[in-house]
Specification:
Structural class: mainly alpha
CATH architecture of the domain at 58-106: Orthogonal Bundle
Helix content: 55-70%
CATH superfamily of the domain at 58-106: PDCD5, DNA-binding domain
Distance between the termini: 85 Å
Strand content: under 5%
Low-confidence stretches: 22-28
Number of helices: 5
Radius of gyration: 26 Å
CATH class of the domain at 58-106: Mainly Alpha
Largest sheet: none
Number of strands: 0
């Protein structure tokens, strides 16, 4: 989507919100519906921007691997995407992230978030009937 198109959509959405905002309590249901639509549009736009930024930062192979990870573990893929985007915004990533670099990032994240194995010990209470006579 081109930037002028995006700006036009935003402008149209803002005008719709301004028209619906002065209605008072009588038109609360349509206003809520408009607000929900506006929020959904904002979410879609944010996701589109996110995907465009990821396309600029990741190589096609790395994007493919990340999309496969997202199929299995969406929360992990989202965390890796967040990490990559933050690093790119702060200038820590100067070149495109390759598949090998992505794998090393995933390994680092796995080491940091590895769950400790927990052991469960059952202590049974001795019943009154278990007394040795």
């Amino acid at each position: 989507m081109d930037d002028p198109e995006l700006a036009a959509i935003r402008q149209r959405r803002m005008q719709e919100m301004m028209k619906g905002g002065g209605g008072g309590a009588g038109g609360s249901f349509p206003q809520n519906k408009e607000q929900q639509e506006a929020q959904e549009d904002q979410r879609r736009e944010a996701e589109e921007r996110r995907q465009l930024m990821l396309a600029k930062v990741l190589t096609p192979e790395a994007r493919e691997r990340l999309s496969r990870i997202a199929l299995v573990k969406p929360e992990k893929a989202r965390g890796v995407e967040d990490l990559i985007l933050r690093s790119a915004q702060y200038g820590q990533i100067t070149e495109k992230v390759t598949e090998d670099r992505l794998i090393s990032l995933l390994e680092q994240i796995n080491e940091q978030t590895q769950k400790k194995t927990t052991t469960v010990t059952f202590q049974r209470r001795r019943s009154v009937l278990d007394d040795e006579d």
